[in-house]
Every structure is written in structure tokens, then in C-alpha cells.
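>> received
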Amino acid sequence: MNFLTSTSFALLLGTLCFLFLAVVLALLNRRVLLQLYYEGQGARAFQAGRFREAETHFRRAWELMPSQGAARSRLLEWLTRVTQMQGNYDDAERYASDWLHHEEATGDPDGPRLASAKEALAHVHVALARYQHALPLLEDAFHIRTARKDREPLEYATCLHALSVLHINLNQPERLKPFVEQALSIVPQQFDVREGFLVARGMCTLLLLLDRIDEAEKIAQDTLRVAQSSSPSHSLPVAAALLQLASVRQRQERFDEAEALVRQALAIKKSLHPTNPMQWHEELHLLANVLRHQSRWAEADECYRETLRLREEYLAPTDAATARVLEDYAELLELMGRGEEAHQLLHRARHIRSFHVPPD
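>> returned
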């Protein structure tokens, strides 16, 4: 009887333990499923350009997140990107730093995830005009990408592009050409892949800086073709491709075409992001330049002032792109006979550029 009682008790205890474990596993599975659901919803909203909605979903997923593992790394990446897209650089820097620390502690020291985390934190530093902080991160990422360039050519080209843009911001144009040449040797082979045309879009800007306008035109036209064939007509990829082709047309002094293209891009961006003007300040700057060349000075003046207002409100005061806006606006003011105002803007631009002169 004692044996039966003890056996029954053991069986009951075993059953209760099994049920307890089953309940725990079910709850854990529910958390995992909910986390994956919110992450998926966030990813879809992000791809559609609905960044505020995406952030809400990612934060809900984060509340269900385990302290370690690939899912944590993945969500830190999403949170970094979605906060940066909204100009929330404080949170973006925090998430990117956490992501990098996580990869350094748990990941492959020569792996692509570590390179991606370094690139992400570098991009935040660039947005905050901390170019000297960004440089070692991108150089470390570049070493990892170089070792893997045969397997991951687009990631290698993307890192090259980021390094070249950084050297522009650091007033080191002589460092630009080799990066562009290496990236161009890879990008056309991958062009019909969506990520390929995104990298090519950046290459177009760099080619214009090197006065290689014919090559830039071909890439800009191909970029627009791929964007229009792979994305809805009213989408961010199409708007970005329109902006690139408008930049080429401006350099070719085909200002009427440039204006039409940039206004299309601006209309798309404003409709998709009516409350996030940092998504369309580049279009405003280009439109101001085009209007200046068309001698439509009053309209250009308004666009320059709005561009500067947005950059001063949302970006660091030492952002290198702001110096370019100041210089372009000063040129307009000289044409309008407002020399003293132009001098003040040029003084501000020189101060920004001197801030980023690398130490000897």
C-alpha cells in the first residue's frame, strides 16, 4: 500500500511537473509568437515608409524579447534604423551602441553582423556630424567586408560608398576616387537586385562629385528604371531615383527637366511623410539650386531658408551638408545684391568645414 501510495504520489508529482512545464512552454511559445508577429508587422510598416508605426511594433516586440540571442540582435538593428529614419538620433545612438556591444560579446569577431553594427553606429555618428568617431568604425567594418567581398559583394560596395561619403565630409576628396572605382567594379554586376540599385544610387552622387557626368547619367537612368519596375510608382525608392536623375539634369544644365523631376520626388516624399520633413530636405535643397539657375530668385530664396530651417532644427549644427546649403544660398544672395548676408553665411560654412579638419 505504501508502495502504491508512493508510486501514485510520484506519478501525480510527475504529471503536475509535466503540466507545469507544458504551461511554461506554452507561455514562452506565446511570447515568441507575439514577438515574431510584432516584428513582422514592424518590418512591413518600415518597408512601406511608415516609420512611426514600425517603431511602435518593434517596441512591443522588444518588450517580449529575451536578454540574449539572434532575435535580440535583430530587433536592436530594427530599432536603430527606425529611430534614425525619424531623426531620433539619441535613441538611434543608444540602440546602435547596444547592438554593437551585443555583437562584440556574442557574435563572430569577423562576421557580417559585427560589421553591420559598426556601420550602423557610424551612420548615426555621421548624422550627428561626429565624423572622426565614425571613421574607425567604418574602417573596421571595411576590413571585415573586404575579407567577405566575394560572398557579399553588395555589402562590400555599400561600405565603400559610406567610406567615400565620410571622406567628403572630412574634406578629403583625394581619398574618394579609389573607393568609387572599387564600388563601381561590383555594383553593375548586381544592379537588378534591389539592394544593388540602392548602392548604385549612392554611386551616382559620388560620380557627380568627380565630374563623371555621363557615367552618373547612365546609373541614374538605370536606377530609375529598376525602381519603377520593382516598386509602386508612389514609393520611396522611386522618389530617391527621381532625385538622383534630377541632380544629373542640373549638372547638365537641363534645368526644366531637373525641376520637373525634383518636384515629382518632393510630392512623393511629402505625401508619404507629411509630418517628417527631414525625409524631404534634400529635395528642397536641389529645388532651390535649380530655381537659382533659372533666375527665379524669390522662389529659390524661400526654398533655401526652409532647407536651412529644417537642417538647423533636426541635425547637428556642424553637419557638413549644412555647409553646402549655406554656400549655395550665399551664391544666391550675392546675385540678389545681399552681399553682407552672403558673407555671414560663408563665414558659418567655413566654421563648419574647419570643425572637421582631421588632426595632423
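>> DSSP finds 16 helices and no strands in the chain.
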